[in-house]
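Re: Re: ligand-bound prediction request (bumping)

Still looking for help on this. To restate: I need the protein modeled with norvaline bound, output as structure tokens. Inputs repeated here so nobody has to scroll up.
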Amino acid sequence: MKKDFITIHELSRYEFNEILDLTTRMKKNPEKYRSVLKDRILAMIFQKPSLRTRMTFEVGMLQLGGEAIYLAPSDIQMGSRESVRDIGKNLERWVNGIMIRTFGHHIILELAESTRIPVINALTDLLHPCQAMADVFTLLEKKGSLAGLKLAYVGDGNNVAHSLMLAAAKAGMKMAVATPPGYEPKKEIIDWAREDGQGTDFELTITNDPVEAVREADAVYTDVWASMGQEAEKEMRRAIFSPYQVNRELFSRAKPGAYFMHCLPAHRGEEVTDEVIDSPNSIVYDQAENRLHVQKVIMMNLMGKK
Ligand code: CP
Ligand code: NVA
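Reply:
Sorry for the wait, this slipped through. Here it is.
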């Protein structure tokens, strides 16, 4: 098994399915896993805000018998007060794992390279793999299996879209991504997804047409139009992305009974309307809950006594 959890692309199909299977088991019987991380400590580095990620990693460590220490952006001032590498070399002397939410993806790669302890990706500008694992786990719970399901993602070709593409590829799902021109997913990630989906039912459509993307979809997913770090582009993006709002009209073009999904936080009235996110088809709080369950498995796999 790999030391770190940085991309879904790096997981073998076996490891990917194993995380989902173990999550099912642990969620059903949490008592059994109460001390698997006893005496283990996770350092949580946040260079961006968070509700779900911070809560689920910290609660997860406590539920597994370990502890977590939160390091706010102003505490360690990664890259200005101290280099990424020196932070990695210090932390390995005190704790058993590092979770990091940061900007450039190169930062997490440098941290993982610099330290002997596991590094978990809790969001970079490029990827959000824990989110996508929780999302496919949520779909698996609802639908019973993943292969052949169609997931439509409408909005910005961002970190969440990227990780969902990689998860869909590993799961043999069909995925359609609709973005405004110029906001498509990165080619590197499209290539990874196509490579990972080989030999499965995986199909990937990249389009600028939201109606085409949601057609026959079992689930429609969206995310904010301006991600953390893009606040200055907020107004410009609002105009560009408005035709990509998931509202009742667009959502009605998906399969009857389709699910609505969002990683949260949502900007209600922008990428999604209240009607859709508050509808009985919305499973956004199940996704948020499942962040806890999949991350407990990821931490147990990486940080448990071997
Ligand atoms: N979905 C998610 O990662 O939420 P936070 O930004 O609140 O952690
Ligand atoms: N794309 C969003 C996801 C937040 C969980 C961001 O990066 O801000």
